[in-house]
Amino acid sequence: PASTPEANVQTTESAPVTQSTADFYRVGIDAAYQPFSMVGPDGKATGFDVDSMKWIAKDQGFEVEFIPIAWDGIIPALQASKIDLVYAGMTITDERKEKVNFSKPYWTVNQMVVVKEGSPITLDQVKNGSVIIGTQRGCTAAIWIDENLVNKSLMSAANLKLYDNTPLAVDDLVSGRIDAVMYDSTVMNDIIAGKPVAKIGMVETNEDFGIAVRKDDTELLEKLNAGLDKLMASPDWEALKQKYKME
Length: 247
Ligand code: ARG
Prior knowledge:
By secondary structure, this protein is an alpha/beta fold. It has two domains: 8-107 and 208-243, 3-Layer(aba) Sandwich (D-Maltodextrin-Binding Protein, domain 2); 109-206, 3-Layer(aba) Sandwich (D-Maltodextrin-Binding Protein, domain 2). Helices cover 33% and strands 29% of the residues. It contains nine helices and 13 strands. The protein has helices at residues 48-60, 74-79, 94-97, 123-128, 140-150, 166-174, 185-192, 218-233, 235-243, and strands spanning 8-9, 24-29, 32-33, 37-39, 45-46, 63-68, 85-91, 100-102, 107-116, 133-136, 160-163, 180-184, 197-214. Strands 1, 2, 6, 7, 8, 9, 10, 11, 12 and 13 form a ten-stranded mixed beta sheet that branches. Strands 3-4-5 form a three-stranded antiparallel beta sheet, with helices on one face. The longest helix is centred in the last third of the chain and has 16 residues, at 218-233. It is globular and about 55 Å long. Residues 30, 33, 37, 71, 88-91, 136, 139-140, 184, 207 line the site of arginine. Arginine binds next to strand 7.
């Protein structure tokens, strides 16, 4: 690709039009995962992860293209080589480690629980499985609810509502279709800003985010770790956190 300062965004999820090379990689992101990755009306990808990726790419001497992919299909897309890495707030989990390799951790979240403003629902009720909870399909909140509530017969599977992205779940919360939404704390803070929604607490899952690559792609993983090390040690890391108001 041409070495333009702005990385390209491919906005469709159709077959890849590009192939990776040692100096060009396709980055899988989520179009609605603010402030880590989002695609604006102009079709441009922005966010903490997107800017970090551009910094690392420049430092390590390669070009990138950002490709939005539905979250629950993002590991299959990586395995099928439709993308070369996932840089989109992916929690490092043992289950995912069986399929992909992760970079060193670069961010930590817990699971924030929110309800509609004025709702009497408590965190205990949510953790008891007695309310209808919404979150994103395939995310660690959905996995937590499955493992801790549904699989323990504390909650009916029908009370877990799954969405393509969490802003859609918050819309349903505001319109009263569901009782609570659980999601990565940093992202939830951003999604609920200005909405009639109240935080009722946190489930302490202590999740580390990492960049995911295919198992056999050790060369790329080395570049990503080297770049990430340098970025996190540079003043630009603090500046990026401030730019995206990371909490
Ligand atoms: N951290 C959670 C997970 O790994 C949610 C990530 C969702 N990321 C995204 N780009 N939508 O499952």
